[in-house]
Amino acid sequence: MSRRIKSLTRKNLHGVWCALIVPWNERDELDARRFAREVRGYGGTGVHGVYTGGTTGEFYAQDDATFDRITAIACDEAHDLGLPVQIGASALSTRTARQRIRTAVRRGADAIQIALPFWLELKDDELRRFVREIAAEAGRTPIVLYLTMRSKRKIEPRLLAEIAHEVPTFIGTKDTGSDVKAVKAMLKVAPDLAIFGGEDFYERIPAGGRGGYCSITGFNAPKVVELYELCAAGRLREAKPLAEAMRRYLHEALIPLVREEGLWDSAVDRIQRVAGGGVVGVRCQSPYRSGTEQHVKRLIAWVRRHTPELLPAHLA
């Protein structure tokens, strides 16, 4: 029997949320057994919830049947652990997004996480229409907007506040590209929204941020939770060394895989998740290149040498 999950609201949405990576077999099909193990792997880590879709979850590579199975497994397994689930429902059109939202609601999603349609840049009236229509489809299930420049535009604070007023089930944002100045600007006009970034808790939480959707969680979830809890408690002096270690890991170990080796975020997140003990494998959906087991070994060696405090328990 699933544990009862508290409804997510603007007031209580907070903490560390980790992206669920989808394991693919040699035919580029979902490996359902490994995916269920991957979800269960976050039990007892202290994370506040899990989510599907986005770049890390390769939403763009999922047909309807695969999306349904991923959603069902994520909701069932996470709820058995007592973890809420945000289901990523991003798509190229409102029609497809609404279809995915119906599936997510039917499977028990605790929130819908969604980016703006991204083939053509939305104008303000189109953006408003999109949010209204997806919120109507979701009903009582809350909406988290994934604000990413892959959608070709940002939502300015003024417009964000207007949408928040018009759509009460819009409870928060995922915006890993915003800085402290942007966070403060958003909260000035929409003070009750739950504004999330990445692992930059040390800077973002004092500015009013609520938490993060952190790729580093895949490598060492308890350590990311530790940083969040220190920052949320205002213990910034204690948090600083850990924040600096994570910043160094991000900029010196992960970003070079993108800039120097041409890997996309989805491949890099797989590398660190496998290094962290996950069962997802390094295989990305074609045509995007995958990392290798050699990348995994190099990452572990780098952390041992430069930031050993970040090593997960099985490697320490």
Could you characterize the architecture of this molecule?
The protein is 45% helix and 10% strand. It has 316 residues and is an alpha/beta fold. Strands 1-2-3-4-5-6-7-8 form an eight-stranded parallel barrel, surrounded by five helices. Helix 4 (124-138) links the parallel strand 4 and strand 5 (143-146). Helix 2 (64-81) runs parallel beside helix 3, helix 3 (94-107) runs parallel beside helix 4 and helix 5 packs across helix 6. The radius of gyration is 18 Å and the shape is globular.
Question: What is the topology?
Answer:
Blueprint: E1 15-19, H1 32-40, E2 49-51, H2 64-81, E3 85-88, H3 94-107, E4 111-115, H4 124-138, E5 143-146, H5 157-166, E6 170-174, H6 180-189, E7 194-197, H7 201-204, E8 211-213, H8 221-232, H9 236-259, H10 265-275, H11 293-306
Parallel strand pairs: 1-2, 1-8, 2-3, 3-4, 4-5, 5-6, 6-7, 7-8
CATH class of one domain: Alpha Beta
Q: What class do helices, strands and sheet pairing give? A: alpha/beta
Q: Could you give a short account of the major beta sheet?
A: 8 strands, parallel, barrel
Look at the structure and give the mean pLDDT: 96
Physical arrangement of strands within the biggest beta sheet? 1-2-3-4-5-6-7-8
What would you call the shape?
globular
The number of E-state strands comes to 8
Distance between the termini: 35 Å
Rg of Cα set: 18 Å
What's the CATH H-level superfamily name of one domain? Answer: Aldolase class I
CATH architecture of one domain: Alpha-Beta Barrel
Our count of helices gives 11
Element pattern in H and E: EHEHEHEHEHEHEHEHHHH
Helix content: 40-55%
Strand content: 5-15%
